[in-house]
Amino acid sequence: MNLPPELFLIAMFVLMYFLLIRPQQKRAKDHKNLLKALKKGDEVVTNGGIIGKITAVDESFAELEIASGVSVKVQKQGINQKMPKGSVKSMTKSSSKAKSSSKAKSIEKKEK
């Protein structure tokens, strides 16, 4: 069964549309809706991996509190995903435990 080259070319374009173009458009639409829905109190992750709670939002920028008393202003386009409520608190607790255990280990080494 030989397909005409024109039909093969059209089939390849249709395949590329459904495998590549359409899913990318869907992700872009979902990201745009995420950015529109951002509000004060949401917990988010930026493209750089910074996790924080939104303290202020305007048309193009969002202000994130990344630690107690530490805020950064980021472009809304730089926000990658929204985290479930309480994620920021649980992350800061686990990171403070890790820091305290590493401090304890370094003190033990100094004492030896």
Automatic annotation (TrEMBL):
Name any Gene Ontology BP term.
Answer: protein transport
Membrane-crossing segments per the record: 6-22
| Keyword Transmembrane helix (UniProt) | yes
Q: Where is this region: Disordered?
A: 81-112
For this protein, the record's Pfam families field holds:
YajC
- Where does the record place Low complexity bias? 85-104
PANTHER family documented for this protein:
SEC TRANSLOCON ACCESSORY COMPLEX SUBUNIT YAJC
- Write out the entry's keywords from A to Z: Cell membrane, Membrane, Protein transport, Translocation, Transmembrane, Transmembrane helix, Transport
Q: Does the keyword Electron transport apply?
A: no
Where is the protein situated, by its record's location annotation?
Answer: Cell membrane
Q: How does it sit in the membrane?
A: Single-pass membrane protein
What protein name does the entry list? Answer: Sec translocon accessory complex subunit YajC
Q: Name one GO cellular component term.
A: plasma membrane
Family the entry assigns: Belongs to the YajC family.
